[in-house]
Amino acid sequence: MKSLAELKAIRDKARADLDLRKEKPNAARVLVGMATCGIAAGARPVLNAFVEEISKRGLTEDITVTQTGCIGICQFEPVVEVEIPGQEKVTYVKVAPEMVPKIVNDHLVNKNVVTEYTIGAMDDMKE
Amino acid sequence: MRELSLNVMDVAQNSVRADARLITITVTESERSDSLTISIADDGCGMTAEQVSQVIDPFFTTRTTRKVGLGVPLFKLSAEQTGGSFSIESEPGKGTTTTARYVKSHVDMTPLGDINSTITILIRCNPDIDFVFIRSNDEHSFTLDTRELRQVLEDVSLDNPDVLEWIGSYLEEQTQLLYGGAKL
Questions:
Q1: Are β-strands A63-68 and A80-83 bridged in parallel, bridged antiparallel, or unpaired?
Q2: Does B180 reach chain A within 8 Å, measured CB to CB?
Q3: Which of B1, B13, B162 has its CB closest to that of A13?
């Protein structure tokens, strides 16, 4: 059973961790579009996939996953924006949970944008 | 929407944007009365009667990125298509309560889906807002109140990964106690 005592232990551990590293101002951010359009297109499993992949790799201190609203390209949802400090923001479109490990590995860890998943690649396809 | 829990995630974000400090999500299921009721209550900025009538119009939105606002209309439709009902009570400065009532056995009933995932994501993405989640059936009920967790956590944020994992496991455990059956 999950108890509040357990939560207290988590608190103490979190405090100890914080003393070790302090806040990381350079954390990368993953923003998942979670307005009506994003949710309907399947943004929730995508967000969960990011959280899972990042925690599996022990990167929870370096990358934060959060939601954002609709940025006006509803036809390309689920949309995910990746922000790495000092680099240009990258917008991934029509993201599926299966694509997430590659984005985390190539882009967030090794800093190589997964070009074929970006909105730029989508535009090329249309031409 | 494939799951009602997705409608909840969507509509709860209206509360977030209304600057709510406390959002209460209640899911009440009853086999006896063949009903499911979902309510989302907040203490945000609220709406005037005129605004309330506008939000159920799919072609009304306050946002500028697109011309339609489908969150509330889809939620309303999901309830009404089961022969249920939908209501919004709101007062400027006080907050808004959105309630959807469903007839569970209706052929057009959408499954509730993974409501626990919705609650966890809402907390993860809005760690400064308090959430109360109450789920009940004919026999039992359970409550998750982030204000209680905050008392224990003191200066540690709700979006700490270990805390979120605790919340996820707590919800899973409680749901299983409520409904029994095998662990999914």
A1: unpaired
A2: no
A3: B162
In our burial notation (b when 16+ CB lie closer than 10 A, e otherwise), range B109-145 reads bbebbbbbbbbbbbbbbbbebbbbbebbeeeeeeebe
Q: Whole-model pTM?
A: 0.88
Residues of chain B with C-beta less than 8 angstroms from the C-beta of A39: 1, 6, 9-10
Q: Where would I find the beta strands (DSSP E) of chain A?
A: 28-33, 63-68, 80-83, 90-92
Q: Do A38 and A77 contact (CB within 8 A), yes or no?
A: yes
Is the residue at B18 inside a domain? yes
Query: Does residue B175 lie within any of the structural domains?
Result: no
ipTM: 0.82
Contact B149, B167 (CB under 8 A): yes
Tens place of pLDDT per residue across chain A (127 aa): 788 899 999 999 888 876 655 556 678 999 999 999 999 999 999 999 999 999 999 998 889 998 898 888 999 999 999 999 989 999 999 999 999 999 999 999 999 999 999 988 776 655 4
CATH of residue A53: 3.40.30.10
Q: How many domains does chain A have?
A: 1
Q: Per DSSP, what are the bridge partners of residue B36?
A: B29, B102
A33 CB contacts (<8 Å, ≥6 apart)?
A: A43, A67, A68, A69, A70, A71, A77, A78, A79, A80, A81
Q: DSSP characters for B25-91?
A: EEEEEETTTTEEEEEEEE-S----HHHHHHHTSTT--S-SS-S---HHHHHHHHHHTTT-EEEEEEE
